[in-house]
């Protein structure tokens, strides 16, 4: 006789019913919902609202799919065709009116985190309106969806978490990462931004709550670079946290254990990288974000020859800062090789910027790289990096250990090295003191001061401090935005050395050319493209970066130059090369205007 377990059979039967019902309703949805865009069907429409009902609940599903929901912008005809009658108020709005209403509501919030949460709610409800809003109001909303507000959002991510916006891969998934990747509903992925949460901005180890960074970065890939949101995937790798406050928090959403290190960490990352290539192919761009120094350098070195990888903290920051330096030469005079650079901070950002400056000097002057590095000095927590310290230095600091007597304090390093450019990547606020800025001003008629650490609270100095203490002589740029400064009857507009200038256009250039590896010359091309966008009007205001209002045009230009360099290096696979890469880049860009359905 055969025995059977009734509950198991019932669950299997229900499972088969659910699968069949989802397939049936997917066919109904796809056949009934059509776009009036070149006569093409809406692709991959998905039912995310359960299985009850039949044709009649298409409207209900449609309103809850952020990819297709238009809210009150559904026309009378669309409401009739797609069973929306009664599910919406009778008013019909344009996308422009919706945008005006949302901006009005956002401006009522006094707390930046409330604006952030409102924007995330909008993204989960109406994707196209979210991106339309961000594109049209980029200078106002960039600080809301990214730095500095995203830092606070990460700190409180466990409290504000509502629904997943990306994949969480933890040690629990070891041996099953490929299976986890297949759980993501979109199957064609071109860009992944991944973090392990160990060094979130200047805030330290936030563990699993670092997910706000990949989500924010990828929203900028779409809004600023025109990369379609459906091909973007945010991922957080959770190996634990060493933040005791989070471990003691009953509401913490991540693994409650100390961070895995060594072989256990390396094996998980190796499985992840292999699974990504196996599932998405050779040409998926993997952007490492906010890994701690020791892992960031090792991962980039290990995978840059086998995968399409990019570290925004090391390479993206470097490209943006180099662009500002190239642009500043019009105000400072001379070439990069004529200047002396002093960094406060010798981690991922500092050493990455320093290396790209040295590479640019080498390309322009043909001097050996080792010689070009001698124009660049770094200060870490123990003082000036000099040759007498070389045995105790981490490997990525050793190229910057020059012959000089030890110097402990930054102010003494300024007086000894006499730099023309001072760059802060320390993650420690208020370290460019009045004495330091005054010393820079006494040494140079126009000192270039770049306080790059994020968020705003960690900036080495403010714009007002830089202009006031230098008596209006400084050229200033920062990683977080500052308001214009009035000093002695003149208005100074500081430059914003934000990575968002480069990585969206850089990624677009890689995708549209089918590039298979990132080369340093592509970073240099991006820097020079960005620098060329600075206008005479920008220079008159003291800016060494263009305004973000033109960012889509800038991103298309950067994408074109990056792609051109990839074709030149033989790294592009999408052949033949388009005759006009700028126009091609613009044609590839996602546009968040509503579509008409029939």
Properties at a glance:
598 residues; alpha/beta; seven-stranded mixed beta sheet; five-stranded parallel beta sheet; 25 helices; 45% helix; disordered N terminus; metal ion binding; metal-binding; NAD binding; oxidoreductase
What is the arithmetic mean of pLDDT?
A: 90
Strand content: 5-15%
How many angstroms separate the termini? 57 Å
Counted by DSSP, the helix tally is: 25
What are the low-pLDDT stretches, counting only 5+ consecutive residues below 50? 1-53
Structural class label: alpha/beta
Count of beta strands: 14
In helices, the fraction of residues equals 40-55%
Spatial sequence of strands, sheet with the most strands: 8-7-6-9-10-11-14
Main sheet record: 7 strands, mixed
* Cα gyration radius (Å): 26 Å
Shape: globular
Give a description of the structure.
- The chain contains 25 helices and 14 strands.
- The protein has helices at residues 6-32, 58-63, 76-81, 95-106, 112-125, 127-136, 138-145, 149-155, 157-160, 177-182, 212-225, 244-247, 262-280, 293-303, 312-332, 348-365, 369-373, 410-417, 434-443, 463-469, 503-513, 520-531, 536-540, 551-569, 581-588; strands at 167-170, 191-195, 232-238, 285-288, 309-311, 341-344, 376-380, 383-384, 421-424, 448-451, 475-478, 485-487, 490-492, 495-496.
- The strands form three sheets. Strands 8-7-6-9-10-11-14 form a seven-stranded mixed beta sheet, sandwiched between helices. The chain has a five-stranded parallel beta sheet with strand order 1-3-2-4-5, with helices on both faces. The protein has a two-stranded antiparallel sheet with strand order 12-13.
- Helix 6 crosses helix 11.
- The chain is globular and about 75 Å long.
């Amino acid at each position: 006789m055969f025995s059977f377990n009734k509950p198991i059979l019932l669950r299997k039967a229900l499972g088969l019913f659910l699968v069949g019902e989802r397939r049936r309703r997917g066919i109904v949805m796809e056949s009934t919902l059509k776009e009036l865009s070149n006569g093409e069907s809406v692709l991959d429409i998905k039912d995310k609202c359960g299985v009850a009902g039949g044709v009649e609940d298409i409207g209900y599903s449609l309103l809850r799919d952020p990819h297709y929901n238009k809210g009150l912008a559904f026309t009378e005809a669309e409401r009739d065709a797609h069973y929306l009658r009664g599910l919406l108020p009778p008013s019909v709005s344009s996308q422009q009116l919706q945008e005006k209403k949302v901006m009005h509501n956002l401006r009522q919030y006094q707390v930046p985190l409330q604006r952030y949460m409102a924007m995330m709610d909008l993204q989960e409800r109406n994707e196209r309106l979210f991106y339309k809003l961000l594109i049209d109001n980029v200078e106002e909303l960039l600080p809301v969806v990214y730095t500095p507000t995203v830092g606070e959002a990460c700190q409180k991510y466990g409290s504000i978490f509502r629904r997943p916006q990306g994949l969480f891969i933890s040690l629990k998934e070891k041996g099953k990462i490929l299976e986890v990747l297949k759980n993501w509903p979109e199957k064609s992925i071109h860009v992944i931004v991944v973090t392990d949460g160990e060094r979130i901005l200047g805030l330290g180890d936030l563990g699993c709550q670092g997910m706000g960074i990949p989500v924010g970065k990828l929203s900028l890939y779409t809004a600023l670079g025109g990369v379609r949101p459906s091909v973007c995937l945010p991922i957080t790798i959770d190996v634990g946290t060493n933040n005791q406050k989070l471990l003691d928090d009953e509401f913490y959403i991540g693994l409650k254990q100390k961070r895995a290190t060594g072989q256990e960490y390396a094996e998980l990352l190796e499985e992840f990288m292999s699974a990504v290539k196996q599932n998405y192919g050779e040409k998926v761009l993997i952007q490492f974000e906010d890994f701690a120094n020791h892992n960031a350098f090792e991962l980039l070195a290990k995978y840059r020859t086998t995968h399409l990888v990019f570290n925004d903290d090391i390479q993206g920051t470097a490209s943006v800062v180099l662009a500002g330096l190239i642009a500043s030469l019009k105000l400072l005079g001379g070439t990069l090789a004529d200047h002396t650079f002093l960094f406060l901070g010798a981690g991922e950002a500092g050493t990455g910027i320093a290396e790209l400056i040295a590479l640019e000097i080498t390309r322009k002057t043909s001097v050996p790289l080792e010689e070009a590095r001698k124009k660049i000095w770094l200060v870490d927590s123990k003082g000036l990096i000099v040759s007498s310290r070389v045995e105790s230095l981490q490997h990525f600091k050793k190229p910057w250990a020059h012959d000089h007597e030890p110097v402990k304090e930054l102010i003494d390093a300024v007086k000894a090295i006499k730099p023309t450019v001072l760059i802060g990547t320390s993650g420690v606020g208020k370290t460019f003191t009045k004495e330091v800025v005054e010393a820079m001003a006494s040494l140079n008629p126009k000192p270039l001061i770049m306080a790059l650490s994020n968020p705003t609270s960690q900036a080495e100095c403010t714009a007002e401090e830089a202009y006031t203490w230098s008596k209006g002589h400084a050229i200033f740029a920062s990683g977080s935005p500052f308001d214009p400064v009035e000093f002695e009857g003149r208005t100074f507009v500081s430059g914003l050395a934000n990575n968002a200038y480069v990585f969206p256009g850089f990624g677009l250039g890689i995708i549209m050319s089918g590039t298979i590896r990132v080369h340093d010359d592509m970073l240099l091309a991006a820097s020079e493209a960005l620098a060329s966008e600075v206008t005479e009007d920008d220079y008159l205001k003291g800016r060494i970066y263009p305004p973000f209002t033109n960012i889509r045009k800038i991103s298309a230009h950067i994408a074109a130059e990056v792609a051109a360099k990839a074709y030149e290096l033989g790294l592009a696979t999408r052949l033949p090369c388009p005759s006009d890469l700028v126009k091609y880049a613009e044609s590839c860009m996602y546009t968040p205007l509503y579509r008409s359905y029939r």
